[in-house]
Amino acid sequence: MKVYFSKNFDKGYKKLQRKIMRKADERIVLFSINPTDSILNNHLLFGKYEGHRSINITGDLRAIYTMIDEDTALFVAIGTHSQLYG
């Protein structure tokens, strides 16, 4: 799976602590290898992000993405549950 990042995602990523950045990197690599790995809790979103999907980075940190085509994902946001959905 090819993975791309929006400017909004990059902005949120740069605000993360280095330890959390490494965790995000690990999860995105795992996503690129196997997007349905159960560790990611990959799920469809509704409301504000209807049509997008989310993966878990840490207990409260999420990365939101949309599929561009069957082999390409665009990550559009990263943040805590309350930052993204609140």
From TrEMBL:
Provide the taxonomic classification.
Bacteria, Candidatus Doudnaibacteriota
Q: Which domain of life is it from?
A: Bacteria
Q: What is the name of this protein?
A: Type II toxin-antitoxin system mRNA interferase toxin, RelE/StbE family
User: InterPro entries attached here?
Assistant: RelE/ParE_toxin, RelE/ParE_toxin_dom_sf, Toxin_YafQ-like
Keyword terms of this UniProt record? Toxin-antitoxin system
Among SUPFAM superfamilies, the record links this protein to: RelE-like (SSF143011)
Q: Which NCBIfam families match?
A: RelE_StbE
